[in-house]
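Q: Predict the assembly, please.
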Amino acid sequence: MTTVLAAASLGVDEPAVDLPGVPGFIESTFNPLVYGVARPCLRHTAMIGARTAMVLGSLMGDTTTADLHSRRLIDGKVHNPLLFMQATANSVMGYLAAEFGVTGPALSISNPGDPVAPLLDTAELLLAEGELDHVLVIGVELARAARSAAAWQELTDFTLGGTGPPDQDFAVALLLRAGGPPLPADRPGNRTSVRDLLRVADGHLYQPHLGAS
Amino acid sequence: MNRAVQVTGFGVRTAFGPGAEQVRRGVFAGVPAFAPVTRFDTGPYRSQVAAVGADSLSVADALAETAVAAVGMAGVPVGDRTAVFVGTGGDFAALTRYWRTGGDAAPTVPAWQAEALAVRLGARGPRLAFTSACVASAAAIIHACRMITAGRIDVAVCAGAYLVEEDNFAKFNSGRALSRDGRVRPFSADRSGLLLGDGAAAVVLESRSHAGARGATALADVAGWGDASDAHHIAKPHPGGTGLTRALTAALRRADASGLDYINAHGTATPLNDSAETRGLSAALGDRAGMVPVSSTKSTTGHLLEASGAVEFVITLLALLDGVLPPTAGFSRPDPDCDIDCVPDAPRPAGIRRAATINAAFGGANTALILEHP
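A: Predicted assembly structure:
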């Protein structure tokens, strides 16, 4: 049994939303989105960093940074060390960990199919070990771009399902704790978007949504 | 039901070639595999060398090769209840190819790698890709241990693969992380950085009950695991190795053990990592730290990025099975900040019962896995 203590979501339908600046993270909305939804959850008064884990789920990952680096490489341009620093989702979780003193596990996953169940399952497994009180789960996906559109199509052809990329860059975070009543929409199946994490939090929101959802 | 986790099969590939025997001839002999890279033009970069194998494989090929070998060794039926967990950032050679000449985009997606491997094996249980950089495949193994212990699954194939390509070569070059002199000298005073290497490995993990019921021979128990964050920096390790200490302490607690006979270190040979790792190990092991042999096999294989956890898990397993510790190759002179027994240059016979493998990654993520004789 897991309870939602806090939730936040943020979407970028350019240029409608000002994302929080995150020093060292440039060019892509991926990391500011993660930071923007994680911060209000990690500010929850019950959160104790030493007993909190983070799990970030994204099928495609930060395609903006990956594609930018790859295209610059092919064009023979000077490589920017900041793109190296932000090349993995671990980096922004490290930034969050440092700010909020989170010393539990930090995992990043890419799941074929349902993007929600692995996040919740992993959180439950972590909480079941008894050494953690809270797990912050984060779902993030960027909107369609050339490679990701091709990849989404090929994944669909490969029977991974899904309905394609979101229509805007989008992230959602839930701060979960062990115990309490079951989640309101426990494993309904056929979830296809990280937005479906919000359905899990319906009626359990601690924080108002911060942006478009 | 006994939910203890056992290793019943493995497959491995390094720059030395496919299979455990190549690991014994290269890694355990202390022979660095570094050579000039010919897969792409290294002219623009600080270093021109890496540990690159002779074969031309894709990430999916390397995952499949090692996983098929692991499943074959285990002799385990693969089907509805077999999970597949993979540590990978996707195929970066495919990413470069996509932008340079066009080609399939799906292999660039980490989840596709897990799905493709599951299809190849006929595994229809849970499948998931772990993308957490240099702890990715260790995280995959830890996830399987948690799933098996919780009774969610009985069998998991855990794998990781990384093959040297230009995208990450350029990234590590821009981060000034590559060795200046073409050598990797973990724990030495004059270490100057890492070099990349080809690597892939897969292991079959089972509950003791499942392995026992089918009469399988366990190679080792996964007695403990731990993962923890530094809460320090997006890229630099905590100078005191505090996350590593927490990860290893948790693994020792789970294993109900106070001591270790060998540690396969993360040991990247960057100035910051090795001293932080030494402090982290010292804090976890206390007075016993100086008595535990610690080696970095990245001195022979290179840094295998997402594959590090899986390949070094297999190397640690071989040390346990063979009774030989792999050396830290290329050791030059001691660093007072790395005052450990780093098994310099030559393999060391040692009857060991319990060994750990340690990994760390960007964002301050740390993992520890403990293997024991069953």
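Chain B touches chain A through 60 residues (CB under 8 Å). Chain B has a mean pLDDT of 97.
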